[in-house]
Amino acid sequence: MGRKTPLSPSYCGEPHKFDPKFRGPVRNRCCTDTLCCVFFVIIILSYIALGTVAWMHGDPRKVIYPTDSYGQFCGQQDTANENKAVLFYFNILQCANPAVLINLQCPTTQLCVSECPDRFITYVDVQYSYSRNRSQWDYYRQFCRPGFNTPTKSVVQVIRDEDCPSMLVPSRPFLQRCFPDFITRNGTLTVANKTIFKDGLGKSRSVSELRDAAKFRNSVSFKLGVNGGGVLSLSGISSLLDAKEIGVKIFEDFARTWFWILIGLVITMVISLLFIFLLRLMAGVLLWSVIFCLIGAVGYGIWHCYWEYRTLKGKPDADVSITDLGFHTDFRIYLQLSQTWLIFMIVLAVMEAVIILVLIFLGRRVCIAIALLKEGSRAISYVTSTLFYPIITFLLLAVCIAYWATTAVFLASSGEAVYKVISAQPDCKYSNMTCDPQTFSQGNVSSVCRGSQCVFAFYGGESVYHRYMAVLQLCNVFVLLWLVNFVLALGQCTLSGAFTSYYWTLNKPADIPACPVSASFRRTLRFHTGSLAFGSLILSTVQFIRIVLEYLDHKLKGVHNALARFLLCCLKCCFWCLEHVIRFMNRNAYIMIAIFGRNFCASARDAFFLLMRNVMRVAVLDKVTDFLLFLGKILISGSVGVLAFFFFTRQIPVFQEKVPSLNYYWVPLLTVVFGSYLVAHGFFSVYAMCVDTLFLCFLVDLEKNDGSASRPYYMSSSLRSILNNKNHGRTEERKRGGALRRK
C-alpha cells in the first residue's frame, strides 16, 4: 500500500493493525502517567508555597530603590527620602580602591539626594565664601549628612566625621546613581570641559581617575545584582550615560506610534490568514517554482564557471595551482586561477545532479508533502478556531513568566540589612566584618583603621532559608522551564486532538464534531496531564543542563585550559542535539496521545517506529514544510516592513499628514517587523502542527486501511490519487446509486 520496500518489523516495530472499532480519536480513555501527574501537582503546590514564603520575607523595594549607607531606600514614597531618588557618593575616587572588588562596596558614605551635582566645587571654597555668599553653602549642604549645618567646622573634622563630601563633581544619574558627566572632546575625556580638578584636600586630580572610579563602581553595582547581574564593560562611560536620553526618545516614539504599530500587526494577522488559506491553491506552484528556479540558478552557475575556466585556461598566470599559490587573505587572487573555477564548476555540477536525482526518486514524496500542505490549509478553514488557540498559550506563558519573575525578585530581596566594615586601608583586620551602625562609633574600629565606616552591604541572613537562597533560585528557574514546556505541550496536544477529529471523518466537513478545540482541550487536561508533564519534564531537564553548561562556559572564558574548554564545547553540542531530538519526539508523541490516548512512553515508541517505517517521507515533508513556512514568515514580515517603512518615512501621499513626528523612525519600523514575524509565527505554528498531525494520521491510515468497503481510507481524494489508491467500496456504492436512479 504505502511502502513497496518496508523495513524489517524487528527494527521499526509492527505496523498498525486494522481495528473495526477505531473511528478516529479514542473516546473511551483512562488517565495516563498518573504518578507523574501527582508529582507535577505536588511541584506546583510547592512552587506556590515557595512564592508565598518569598512574598512574606521579601521586599521588592530592596531591588527597585538604591540603598544608602544607613540602609534607607532612595525615592521611596512616604519616607524622608521620598524626593531623593538618586544615590550620591561622597568621594567616588574611593571606589577605585582595590578593596572595592573584595568587599563589593565603596568605602565612602553614600547618601540619597534629589539631584546630582552640576558643578565643580570644594568644601574649602564654600567655607571660604560663606561669609560673603551663603547661597553656595545652601547648595552644597544638600549633599551633606541630613541635619548638618555647621560650615565653620574645620575641613579636617568634616572629612574625618564624613559630614560632607570634600568636593562635588558635575554628574548625571545612571541606574539611579550619580556618576561623573563625562564628555569626549577631540578625543580627550573631560568633565565640564575640565581635565584637571581639585579634590578639596589640596590635591589636583585627573579626570581619568574619575573614569576608573566610575568603572569600579559600575562593576560593583552589577555584581550586587543591579539590573540582573554580570559585570558591566565600560568602553565609554559617556555612551552609557547617554543611553538614558536615547531611551526617553525611544519611549516617546512608542507613545506616538503605538496605534499605528497595532494597525500593522492587525494587517499582519489578516495577511497570515490569507496566506494559510491560499496555500491550498499555490503550495504546489510555489514549491515547484522555487525548485526549478534553483535548478536554473545552479545551471547558470555551472555555465558561468565553465566560461571563466575556458577564458583563463592557457594563460600563464592562471595555470598556477592553489596549493602552489598558498594562503592569501585577499581571496580575489584565487578568482584569477583557472583551477578555482574548475572546482566551483565541479561542486555546482554535483549539486545539480543531487537535486535532479532527488526529484527523480523522491518526486512522489514531494507531491505527497504538497498535498498534505494543501490538506492542512483545508483543515484550518474547517476548524478555524484553532488559529486563536495561541492566544491561550500566550496568556498561560505570561502568567508563568510573571510568577517566576515576581518570585525571583522577592527571593532576591529577602532578608534584613547587613552592615559591614569598609576601610580604604587594605591591611585593616576588621574589613568586611559585620557591624552595627548604631554602636559603631563607640567601638575602637575607627581608631585602629582610620577612615573605616559601618555601611550597608547587602540583604541577607543566617537562617536555613537565607543560606539556601541560591538553591531556591535554581529551583525557581527549573520549575519555570517545566511549566513553560508543559503549556507548549498542552497546546500541541490540544491542536492535535482537534485536527485528528477532522482527519478521521469520512464525510468532511459534515461529520466534523462540534467545538473540536474545546473538546480536545478538556480531554487532554482530564486524561493526559501526567503524560504532558512527563514529556515536558524530560525536555526541561535537558534545557536546565544546557543553562548550567552555558554558565560554566561563561565562567571559564578567562581560563587557559584547552582540554576543559574542548570538553565543555562537546557537552554543549551534544545537549543541543539532544534537546532538539527530544523536542521532535515529544511533538510526535503528543500527536499519538491525541489519537490513541496511550501513555507517554508507549506513544513516543509508536511515533518513533511509525516515523522510522516512513523515514524518507518524514525527511521530505519536514524540509518542505519548514521551507514554505519560513518563506511565508519572511514574505509577510518583509512586506509589512516595507509598507511600514514607506508610511513612517512619509512616502505615502495619502497618509503624510497623519504620520507623527519621530526621533527615530526605525523604532516603530523594527517593532512592526519583529511583531509581524511573531504574529506570523503564531499562526504558522498552528499550521505546522496541523500538517504534522495530518501526516501521522495519513501514515496510520495507510497501515490500518486498504480502501475496501470495510476498511476505507480516510485521506483526501488528492492523496489517494497520488498513491493510486481508491476507496473501492464507496465507488461501487455510487455506481449502484446511479443505476437505481436510472431505473
How is this structure best described in words?
Pfam families: Choline_transpo. Keywords: Antiport, Cell membrane, Glycoprotein, Membrane, Transmembrane, Transmembrane helix, Transport. It comes from Ictalurus punctatus. The chain has 743 residues and is mainly alpha-helical. Among the domains are: 26-64 and 384-415 and 461-612, no CATH class; 86-235, no CATH class. Helices cover 60% and strands 7% of the residues. It contains 23 helices and twelve strands. The strands form six sheets. Strands 1-2 form a two-stranded antiparallel sheet. Helix 9 (237-312) crosses helix 11, helix 12 (389-412) packs antiparallel against helix 15 and helix 18 (562-596) crosses helix 19 (600-612). It is globular.
What proportion of the residues is helical, as a percent range?
Answer: 55-70%
What is the structural class?
A: mainly alpha
| Fraction in beta strands | 5-15%
Question: How would you describe the shape?
Answer: globular
Averaged pLDDT: 78
Secondary structure tally: strands: 12
Radius of gyration: 35 Å
Number of helices: 23
Largest sheet: 2 strands, antiparallel
Distance between the termini: 37 Å
Uncertain stretches: 1-7, 99-104, 216-241, 731-743
Spatial order of the strands forming the largest sheet: 1-2
